[in-house]
Design brief:
Layout: H1 2-19, E1 31-32, E2 36-37, H2 39-51, H3 53-56, H4 68-74, H5 77-86, E3 88-89, E4 94-95, H6 102-119, E5 129-130
Parallel strand pairs: 2-5
Antiparallel strand pairs: 1-2, 3-4
Helix pairs in contact: 2-6, 4-6, 5-6
This protein binds heme C.
Amino acid sequence: MKKLMIIMTLALTFSYWAAIPAQADPQPYTVTNGNQLDSQTYKGFKLYRNWCARCHGTYGQGLAGPNLAQSLNTITYEEFMTTVAEGKTGQIGMMPAWKANQTVMDGRDNIYSYLKARADGAIDAVKPDKAK
Ligand code: HEC
């Protein structure tokens, strides 16, 4: 009986860990000459401009939605990924969920890189360019 309990506990523990998805790390960005982004990060800026800028400002400085250049200093990478997928309703307002938008979902990492570069002050609220 004791043996069975141990086996069951082990099995449960294992299935619990196996159900947790692997945590990916945010991809790094590079900024040269003040506004030149690596191609992935530049792609992130373009996605950001198309899908997010109307509420969060052209360069993430905030509009109807919060300043994301500041938010990314406080929220974690995982929180960012979840918020974008699930949306968020809070004191400021309502952000739609993006999980049905494959373009945004596939580009979340790139968008994160751009906004992280903004949050770190690596690029200011200036028009980015793609590094040659
Ligand atoms: C229709 C307007 C709208 C659009 C479009 C929009 N958002 Fe938002 N977003 C908001 C609002 C409003 C909030 C604040 C919700 C609250 O906490 O009250 C928010 C919150 C967030 C937050 C959480 C910030 C924090 O400090 O907790 C993140 C991250 C975010 N948005 C990312 C994005 C990204 C990335 C896109 C584009 C894919 C996007 N948003 C598009 C309106 C929008």
